[in-house]
Amino acid sequence: MSPESAATTEPITAQSPVPEFAEPSVVFDVRELDVYYGGFRAVRDVNLEVHQHEITAFIGPSGCGKSTVLRCFDRMNDLIESARVEGKILYHGVDLYDPRIDPVEVRKRIGMVFQKPNPFPKSIYDNIAFGPRLSGNKGNLDDIVEQALRRAALWDEVKDRLKKSAMGLSGGQQQRLCIARAIAVEPEVILMDEPCSALDPIATARIEDLMQELKSDYTILIVTHNMQQAARVSDRTAFFTTEVNSESDTRTGVLVEFDSTDKIFSAPFDERTENYITGRFG
């Protein structure tokens, strides 16, 4: 039996182990991924591997499909009625888009942090406790909340006001709270969609430092428009661009190059990557 056929014999459940045949360092294996909105192909031919305990950055001009691809990893595109995903995203060898896979369970294992901080209008404590409560976690909630806030480098700043509204935190603190909220349900992977775009440079630096600390425990994928940020924090970088259909004036995102971040920024293989990195377009 091939790895692919073996991978789809059982759906992902809360008790599912990592299949023995999966290569431990490869968390995601993306093969010939296309994303459609209705009849429009928004992204085509994405092939890449995401490795454990690394930060993988997606860069490229606006509209090239970076966020669309990112949302495929936790099946957030399922929430868009017209969206359709073709190809494969293998998670430890298991096809995430097999019809038997529970997308809710996928999102427990693969957390998401959005562009703008989005704390719930609840207390700091209840923001962190929300996910564990919803998933029926039987652990000590106080310990879970403290551990998540410590991992997000926020505990010392909020430990004396846990019952106060999260809306009173600064933007940078709110974003770290959202990271802590994602961590609280014990995912393996954290997706970050431009997590620093609404933050000032000091808050951005704190989030970047936090990402470096977190990658020892988590695998991180980040979409960023900030090339310097990608160069600073990521281990591997994927550069996307757009292809314009001159007849319909529609734009389709395409993965141009995927390699180690050092190589992407110092010796890219594709001229389009070099032109973007050097500011000649984009």
Q: What's this entry about, in short?
A:
By secondary structure, this protein is an alpha/beta fold.
Q: What's the helix and strand layout?
A:
Blueprint: H1 3-7, E1 26-37, E2 40-51, E3 55-59, H2 66-72, E4 83-91, E5 94-95, H3 103-109, E6 110-113, H4 124-134, H5 141-151, H6 155-158, H7 171-183, E7 189-193, H8 201-214, E8 219-223, H9 227-233, E9 236-245, E10 250-260, H10 261-266, H11 271-277
Parallel strand pairs: 2-10, 3-8, 3-9, 6-7, 7-8
Antiparallel strand pairs: 1-2, 1-4, 4-5, 9-10
E-strand count: 10
> What is the average per-residue confidence, as pLDDT, rounded to a whole number?
89
Tell me the name of the CATH class of one domain: Alpha Beta
> What level of helicity do the residues show?
25-40%
The CATH architecture of one domain is 3-Layer(aba) Sandwich
Largest sheet: 10 strands, mixed
Residue windows where pLDDT falls under 50 for at least 5 positions: 1-11, 13-22
